[in-house]
Amino acid sequence: MYKLLLGSLLASMAFAAPSQTAPTEADCQQASDNCAAIGRWNFSVALGAGVRTNPVIHSQDIPLVVIPQVSYYGKRVFLNNLDLGFTLAEGNSSSISLIASPGYDRVFFYRSDLQNIFVSGFSGSGYNATVVRSDAQGAVAFPPKSRRITYLAGPEWTFKFEGVTGQVDLLHEITAQDHGNEIRAALGIPLIERGRIGSLGVNVGITWKSAAIVNYYYGSPNLYEAGSALNPFIKFKFSRPLSGKWRLDALVQYERLGRAIANSPIVTEDQVVTAFIGATYPF
Amino acid sequence: LSRPLLAPRTRFSRGAIAAVIALNCGGMAATVSADEPAPASGVDIRLQLSPRVCTLALKDKRCQTEVHASWQAPRQESLCLIVLQRPDVKRCWENYSEGTYSIKMVFADDLTFQLRDPELRQILSSEILHVIREAIHYRHQRRDPWNVFE
Q: What is the ipTM of this complex?
């Protein structure tokens, strides 16, 4: 399936590939929400209150209090928080990059994961509960195991059409942990753009995880061996300027966990809800 | 780091530091009239600045350098050197045919150095120390819908 999707994506990329072979700044003449200065680091921090629910059994929800953001854009390379990328081609309406991005699911097992940084104090305890199968006659221990930081890499295609932005990532795990594949696809749709009360946008998307990834986080040999999982999500984000450089941000995201994940003995919820409201200051 | 042309020792500061006056201005505060005085006619006084240009790199916000100003006149003159954007800077000479003045400065925009008569009414000579900023280029910012904040 992965190869089929990869082939389809590369074909669509070839069809829609921008004419330029080097990144262009044709419609980016100044800094804006869509454009970043080349060669400059961008830092911001959000202070507020929020939570991300944790579907893993015996784990606590993840509080969101202080959330830093960092990015850097060179002529071709970019850093977007924990994502690294190299832009192969960029046009006014689409771009093709090679990216490396961390595996997301580890955040539910390790509070100290970099993707949880500054969200709360570092407990570092991680998931180590002894879990039983609910459908077993007798209690069967679900052996604890370490889940290392993983990175996935592959091509990313982004496009823009009539104000809607789209993104497709085809990723393969490159840190020799699970050798799994992941497909991420999303659309960003502005609902209100710089209106009197602020801006409102919605993101919808899916994340497909191969069985290797699902089993690395949620499976155990001879106890629970899962297949692939498809997680759809929807996110609303509201933003409005405050005094000075401060900005009010509020968001709520709902992600439905695929059946292969939700059915794992160590998962008690079939959804992850993230909500946050706070003030963001860009440095 | 970028450096201004013709400046042997130059560095730039990112912070908003007040300019450091290297030489004593004799306690006199220059008062530059808002009305631009007319240039004096028939006066052949040469004013030279070093550096003449400060080029700011992308990451720099201000120039910080020592500016050397020198002037020569065919006969003895009484005049004052001022910087339009810095009313606190003033250096005067009485009956000299040449003079030099050095000052450490921090600045973000062009500086206009002028030689004027002691009453500051007539402009005898004028030079501008230009600030040139490296052009900023922009590119599309990547969206990451899986990030909480994007």
A: 0.70
